[in-house]
Automatic annotation (TrEMBL):
GO terms for molecular function: L-seryl-tRNA(Sec) selenium transferase activity; transaminase activity. Its EC number is 2.9.1.1. This is Aminotransferase class V-fold PLP-dependent enzyme. Its cofactor is pyridoxal 5'-phosphate. Residues 151-246 form the Aminotransferase class V domain. InterPro entries: Aminotrans_V_dom (IPR000192), PyrdxlP-dep_Trfase (IPR015424), PyrdxlP-dep_Trfase_major (IPR015421). The keyword Chloroplast does not apply.
Length: 408
């Protein structure tokens, strides 16, 4: 019965391609397609596809909107938050030096170290290194020794700033420390920028301006997560001088200098000794359709009734939890605060059934449609159902499939 409520393997475009579809109770995960793009964005993309436009003009329009929303001086649309990190590093290293732009990722002789508290490091830092940066780890693991000390002290960051330092990178999560404003003060005392990875920190919308207010020079958000824009978009918001450097290293530079006049509010050519050639960002291009899609998704995201969305997520999570508990599985619902967006249903599979969490995740992923649960707590014998990327019907379906696949 329930299966019929879904576009199954055979009746979607993916069926034509013979690719199984996914019911996504794992949240905004890139490998299963991120979030579902908003209808407003899709419509705008369709429209954008039929006309030519100068990409610099379009980036300038996006910059104005991003600046308005974030309170930053300027903004830029990249091909994802990871690309935004790479370009931010490139801007921190090359600045307005077009010869340096031309050489990246070769940074020999250029200050190119990016300091990061060890506890802020993730696999995404590869994007910073891709620009030619070397990452310098700061701090220890002392917090976990139970001595009462913290992982990283502000003085440790300051002590590692040298003539080789190009920036400090900061990964924004509710638990990261030291506080961003403290780190920004240290950076600014030494005339270096702070790059904040806030890819998944939307909603709440207040985060658009929060990190800028706390002193970040560049903040990176994903366009394909909470904003629900095109999957291949990201936003960088920040200081004009860096955004300008990003633009010059990203736009297609197959231009005749004498005939090129980009919008001055995006790139002031008086700040540069000429025009560089294709830069490090050229392999991360953004199409006019994605750019327009992101702008319209942003607008819809700003107008959305956040409390209403939050209530929907909470109801969906509570319904899943109820249905599963009725079948004898132990669950609890976490989150849903203004710090971490969506509530999630944590299901203790190992303790309350004969099945293991890993086995359950595997079985569900092998179904058609595939059912994806969050696997972040799999080592603790728990699976997580996230309500952000499913409909109410799909939430019922997910609960049914979980119950059908455990033995207790
Ligand atoms: C998702 C994510 C990214 C990458 O974002 P994309 O838009 O997919 O490139 C980077 N950093 C963090 C912390 C993320 O969660």
């Amino acid at each position: 019965m329930t299966e019929q409520r879904y576009r199954s393997h055979t009746d979607s475009i993916y069926g034509e391609l013979d690719v199984p579809t996914v019911v996504n109770a794992a949240g905004t995960k890139t490998r299963i397609g991120g979030s579902l793009i908003r209808a407003e964005a899709l419509e705008a993309m369709n429209d954008a596809a039929s006309t030519f436009v100068e990409l610099g003009d379009l980036q300038a329009a996006a910059s104005d909107r991003i600046a308005e929303i974030t309170g930053a001086e300027a903004g830029y649309v990249t091909s994802g938050a990871a690309a935004g990190l790479c370009l931010s590093a490139a801007a921190a290293i090359a600045g307005h030096d077009i010869a340096a732009m031309d050489r990246l990722p070769d940074t020999e002789g250029l200050p190119s170290e990016i300091l990061m508290p060890r506890t802020h490091r993730t696999g995404y830092d590869h994007a910073l290194r891709a620009a030619g940066a070397t990452i310098v780890d700061i701090g220890t693991n002392d917090l976990h020794l139970g001595t009462g000390s913290t992982n990283v002290e502000p003085w440790e960051i300051e002590a590692n700033i040298t003539d080789e330092t190009a920036a400090i990178a900061y990964m924004e999560k509710s638990y990261t420390e030291p506080p961003l404003d403290v780190v920004a003060d240290i950076a600014h005392d030494h005339d270096i920028p702070v790059i904040v990875d806030a890819a998944a920190e939307l909603p709440p919308r207040s985060n658009f301006s929060r990190f800028i207010e706390q002193g970040a020079d560049l903040v990176v958000f994903s366009g394909g997560k909470g904003i629900r824009g095109p999957q291949t978009t990201g936003i960088v918001a920040g200081k004009q001088e860096y955004i300008e450097s990003i633009a010059l290293q990203h736009l297609d530079m197959h231009v005749a200098e004498a005939a090129w006049s980009p919008p001055k509010r995006l790139i002031d050519l008086d700040n540069f000794a000429g025009v560089p050639r294709q830069g490090i960002g050229r392999s991360m291009k953004v199409g006019k359709e994605e750019l327009v899609g992101l702008i319209y998704a942003l607008e819809a995201f700003m107008e959305e009734e956040q409390a209403e969305t939050q209530r929907e997520w909470q109801n969906r999570a509570d319904n899943i939890a109820c249905a599963i508990e009725d079948a004898g599985l132990e669950t609890h619902v976490t989150g849903g605060s203004d710090v971490s967006v969506a509530p999630e249903v944590v299901i203790n599979v190992d303790e309350s059934s004969e099945t293991t969490a890993i086995e359950l995740v595997r079985r569900l992923r092998a179904e058609n449609p595939r059912v994806y649960l969050g696997g972040d707590r799999i080592d603790e014998g728990e699976v997580v159902a996230n309500p952000m990327c499913i409909t109410d019907d799909e939430a019922d379906y997910v609960a049914d499939r979980i119950v059908a696949n455990v033995e207790n």
